[in-house]
Specification:
Helix content: 10-25%
InterPro entries: FTHF_cligase, FTHF_cligase-like_sf, NagB/RpiA_transferase-like
Number of helices: 4
Pfam family, one: 5-FTHF_cyc-lig
EC number: 6.3.3.2
CATH superfamily: NagB/RpiA/CoA transferase-like
Distance between the termini: 30 Å
Shape: globular
Number of domains: 1
Protein name: 5-formyltetrahydrofolate cyclo-ligase
Radius of gyration: 16 Å
CATH topology: Rossmann fold
CATH class: Alpha Beta
Family: Belongs to the 5-formyltetrahydrofolate cyclo-ligase family.
Order of helices and strands: HHEHEEEEEEEEHEEE
Length: 196
């Protein structure tokens, strides 16, 4: 019987292969459908400061959503590897003219300039990438723990909504969870909005 760590590793490999096999046409349709799902969220009207991510490794593409949120006048932020605290993220304002640079993992991110940073507790909504999820709102990330460590800083009474974005093929029956995993309040796929 594989250990929980081994189970999580195997699951990551399997789901990453599934989403990497999605054709560009399917990815494009999924990105457009995702934007439609998010724009229909009733709570979006009261959210101004929104963090999301740029797709990598077959993740659900957020560019159509980003464009739509900019058109609504929302202030957007991208996750950036913390320059001083290893294993953590900071959120940096992202505008149409913001220059991006590859980080240590080859993921594009803006420079962590102080005047563009938003403390995690000031964000109204954080859209997270994920590798796999289950029907209880549990999220399996890439294994670095960056989001779990960063989101653990939120106070228990935080107004910030944690929402995962994923393709439907990333859903599994039951995730082998660890004590440090931060569950999500919602997961949105191109087909549905799951609330927990």
């Amino acid at each position: 019987m594989p250990t929980k760590t081994e189970q999580r590793k195997l699951l990551r490999q399997h789901i990453r292969q599934l989403r990497q096999q999605l054709s560009p046409a399917v990815q494009q349709q999924a990105a457009t459908a995702l934007a439609t799902q998010v724009l229909a969220l009733p709570q979006l009207a009261t959210c101004q400061h929104i963090a999301l991510y740029l797709a990598n490794d077959g993740e659900l593409d957020t560019l159509p959503l980003i464009q739509a949120l900019w058109q609504l006048g929302k202030t957007l932020y991208l996750p950036v590897l913390h320059p001083f605290a290893a294993g953590y993220l900071v959120f940096v304002q992202y505008q149409q003219h913001t220059r991006l640079y590859p980080n240590n993992f080859g993921i594009a991110e803006p420079l962590p300039e102080c005047h563009r940073l938003a403390p995690v507790k000031q964000l109204d909504m954080i859209f997270t990438p994920l590798v796999a999820f289950d029907a209880a709102g549990n999220r399996l990330g890439m294994g670095g723990g960056f989001y779990d460590r960063t989101l653990a800083q939120l106070p228990t009474d935080s107004h910030c909504q944690l929402i995962g974005l994923a393709h439907a093929c990333q859903q599994v029956d039951d995730l082998p969870c660890e004590s440090w995993d931060i569950p999500l309040q919602q997961i949105i796929t191109p087909e549905q909005v799951l609330k927990f």
